[in-house]
# Entry
Amino acid sequence: MNHTRILLAGAVALLAVYGFTAGKGQSGANPKVGTSIGDRAPELAYMNADSTKVLKLSELRGKYVLIDFWASWCGPCRRENPNVVAAFQKYSKAKFKEGKGFEIFSVSLDKSRAAWKQAIESDKLAWKYHVSDLKAWGSAAAGLYGVHSIPASFLVDPNGIIVARNLRGMALHEELDKHVKSL
# Structure
């Protein structure tokens, strides 16, 4: 009986120590990769609109980045695009408390390269980070980020950590304003 108590006490102590130390890796310098606020954003690396170059999300480390999931055929996405364009124009040259600027990493859920490129031109999406695997809802990026409806967005800080999700309209501007240096 005494031997069982000692073993049980040892097991409880080990579990307590393991539980305490296992949680340490989830915050601070080494957050887990995921799509929740506070997680490190999963890497994205896909061909650009001309299919000439692979563009990577990690290339933008050091900036605030809006990962914007959209498609040319998506009415709500196209109606949100003027707001995204306005945010890009307003914040791409802004001075931030941390980081060096703002960029947009657009992920298209299109199947047609021609329709995708036409929408980029028509909506005046002037940033260079436009990517797609042209698999629509079968998009690997949408699966990785758990995107089941669009538009969908993730705001990533200069360290690659997700700080906000699904910012539309003025909410995007208000969130970015929190990170801009005061004049």
User: Anything to note?
Assistant: The CA atoms of residues 31 and 39 lie 6 Å apart. The first helix runs from residue 2 to 22. The first strand starts at residue 45 and ends at 47. DSSP finds five helices and seven strands in the chain.
